């Protein structure tokens, strides 16, 4: 049963990810005045190159994405109704555990405070998927994640093209590979409603900033680490086309 256009639209009105590179990452904690900001404004000069607001916010956004997609991956592995859905869950877990490790490694070097919770919209995404059962669970999860991955993909490219910070470049390279891998495995499920996904990607709702911002961690609280899963034999750096796509390409070449 395909996800209905009205339902998918409602999900994104109340829980849109809003993956734009606005300045959201705890300016007070970083010693930055809460004034009108610009993504290109340099907020720190580091040993790895200048750090802009957009650079800082990208690191926080990658971290925040893992805080909701990792548990969603666990749910997909446990409750997915098809092998392809379970495979997508494995890729979400492995990919975001690796990205999380990179975020936690570079954040102290760059003076960035990382959240321990996802944004309110992202938390609502998890709750929405969790409320579904059977095939509708799969369909809802796939289409939410396909929209959010499609939204962040061009943002990664923009950061990679513009950043002058070598650590941020490394994270952007890794995020690009991981997001492409996740898009690929989500599409392999055969459950993507492309028409509605395209609409939601290009026409995101305008939501309050507080709904798009992960809450700051409690002072002195340890940084939550997403558990690596070496037991899952998954490569998230080189997505493999589905057999049907590979066959089509081979046929065209031949």
Compact description:
The chain has 254 residues and is mainly alpha-helical. It is built from 9 helices and 2 strands; from the N terminus they run αββαααααααα.
Query: Strand count, sense and closure of the main sheet?
Result: 2 strands, antiparallel
What low-confidence regions span 5 or more consecutive residues with pLDDT below 50?
13-36, 243-254
If helices are DSSP runs of H or I spanning 4 or more residues, what is the number of helices?
Answer: 9
Q: Which sequence of strands runs across the widest sheet?
A: 1-2
Helix/strand order: HEEHHHHHHHH
Helix content: 55-70%
Any idea what the shape is? globular
Average pLDDT, rounded to a whole number, is 83
Strand coverage percent: under 5%
Kindly, what is the distance between the CA atoms of the first and last residues, rounded to a whole number of angstroms? 36 Å
Q: Give the tally of β-strands.
A: 2
Rg computed from alpha carbons, rounded to a whole number of angstroms? 18 Å
Description of the molecule:
The protein is mainly α. The protein contains nine helices and two strands. Strands 1-2 form a two-stranded antiparallel ribbon. β1 (42-46) and β2 (49-52) form a beta hairpin. α4 packs antiparallel against α5 and α5 crosses α7 (194-202). 42% of the residues are buried. The model is unreliable at 13-36 and 243-254 (pLDDT under 50).
């Amino acid at each position: 049963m395909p996800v209905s256009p009205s339902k998918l639209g409602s999900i994104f009105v109340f829980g849109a990810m809003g993956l734009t590179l606005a300045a959201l990452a705890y300016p007070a904690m970083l010693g930055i005045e809460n004034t009108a900001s610009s993504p290109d404004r340099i907020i720190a000069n580091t040993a790895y190159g200048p750090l802009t607001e957009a650079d800082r916010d990208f690191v926080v956004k990658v971290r925040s994405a893992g805080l909701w997609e990792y548990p969603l991956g666990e749910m997909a592995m446990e409750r997915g109704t098809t092998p392809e859905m379970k495979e997508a869950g494995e890729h979400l877990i492995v990919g975001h555990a690796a990205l999380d490790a990179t975020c936690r490694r570079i954040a102290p070097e760059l003076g960035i405070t990382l959240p321990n919770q996802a944004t309110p919209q992202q938390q609502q995404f998890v709750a929405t998927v969790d409320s579904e059962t059977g095939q509708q669970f799969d369909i809802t999860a796939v289409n939410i994640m396909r929209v959010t991955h499609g939204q962040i993909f061009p943002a990664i490219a923009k950061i990679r093209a513009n950043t002058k910070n070598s650590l941020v470049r490394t994270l952007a390279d890794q995020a690009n590979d991981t997001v492409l891998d996740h898009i690929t495995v989500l599409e392999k499920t055969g459950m993507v409603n492309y028409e509605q996904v395209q609409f939601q990607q290009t026409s995101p709702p305008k939501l309050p900033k507080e709904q798009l911002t992960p809450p700051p961690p409690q002072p002195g609280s340890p940084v939550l680490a997403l558990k690596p899963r070496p037991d899952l034999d998954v490569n998230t750096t080189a997505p493999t086309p589905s057999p049907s796509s590979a066959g089509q390409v081979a046929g065209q070449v031949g």
